[in-house]
Amino acid sequence: MFGAALSVAFVMFLGNISDSGLSDLMIRRPLVMSTIVGLLLGNLQKGIVMGASLEVIFLGMSGIGGAMPSDYMTGSIFGTAFAILNHQGTSVALSLAIPISLLAVFVNQLVIFIRGLLVSKFNDLADKDNIKGIEYLHYASIFFGPIIYGIIGFLGIFLGNSSISLLVHSIPNFFMEGLTVLGKILPALGIALLINMIHEKGNMLYLLLGFLLASYLKLPLIAIALFGVILAVIIATTDRQILNNKNLITDTNFQNKESNSNLLEEDFFNEQ
Predict the structure, then answer these.
(1) Shortest CA distance to 182 belongs to which of 84, 70, 53?
(2) Are 88 and 166 in contact (CB under 8 A)?
(3) How far apart are CA 170 and CA 166, in angstroms?
(4) Distance CA 11, CA 94 (A)
(5) What is the per-residue pLDDT across 37-77, written as a single tens digit (0 to 9) for each?
(6) Which of 179, 13, 159, 183 is nearest to 82 (CA)?
(7) How far apart are CA 187 and CA 176, in angstroms?
């Protein structure tokens, strides 16, 4: 269990520092985090499947400003790790990931609050022209959050896996079947949240097109995604041609106006 806890601690550290120190490379998304957890815990296939399912659920959740509705990174890592370590399926990972992601918001807010306390210290160092001190404090603030997340990841697996194992194995079958059904509903909820964010009359046609391709032609998701890419390229190319034509017409009209203005000036001086 020590090795598994150390692996989860590394993934927690990596996911958090990608946001605070590497300009957010988007590797903290559930699909990437769960895949890495699955790889390190010896079950890559299950990690990818759980990551894809969690990605769909959290797809429509995005923070506004400093607000974070749920810490999907922490929820995905712990949900995937607990499910793999206890030999459970995707439904257990989904059921664990969501409450953990909501609880982890408090950790995120605590880290942000402590970082905010450093502002006065930065001002003091700036007043004293202590550039080295500012650099050291800046690096300390970058690594503070990832280290805290790494410690939580290690302790959560090392001390909490036995409790989660007892909890999972004590769940009755009918309740587990309910979690399985819930696990199939939650991705639809994630898609609904995403649609709510990007809802426009024009976009709904593409949604309907994808639905028809999947329902009536029975095309797999990869084929529908490739059709979507081709459609996006065609629309982008057409929009660019229209924009170029508008710019060409504007330039031509401007040149014609300049030419007419020059002719009027020449006529005026010739008459003089």
Answers:
(1) 53
(2) no
(3) 6
(4) 18
(5) 888 888 888 888 888 878 877 776 666 555 666 778 888 88
(6) 159
(7) 18
Q: Which two tokens stand for residue 120?
A: 């006065």
On the CB side of 29, how many CA atoms lie within 13 Å of its CA? 17
User: What is the pLDDT at residue 233?
Assistant: 92
Among candidates 100, 56, 59, 45, which has minimal Cα distance to 77?
100
For residues 8 and 154, the answer to whether their CB atoms sit within 8 Å is yes
Q: For residue 187, which of 81, 52, 88, 96 has the smallest C-alpha distance?
A: 52
pLDDT at 95: 74
Instruction: Give dist(CA 98, CA 108) in Å, integer.
Output: 15
Output 149 or 99, whichever has higher pLDDT.
149
Largest CA-CA distance found in the chain, in angstroms, rounded: 105
Phi, psi at 130, each rounded to 5°: -90, 80
Distance, in Å, from the CA atom of 134 to the CA atom of 150, rounded to the nearest integer, reads 25
Written as six digits, the tokens of 21 are 């120190």
Length of the chain: 272
H runs (alpha helix) in the chain:
2-20, 30-40, 44-58, 72-85, 90-127, 131-170, 173-198, 201-215, 221-271
Q: What are 248's two structure tokens?
A: 């060409």
Q: What amino acid is encoded at 152 in this protein?
A: I
The Cα–Cα gap between 79 and 99 comes to: 9
pTM recorded for the entire structure: 0.65
- Residue by residue, what is the 3-state secondary structure of 167-186? HHHHCCHHHHHHHHHHHHHH
Structure tokens at 229: 């890419």
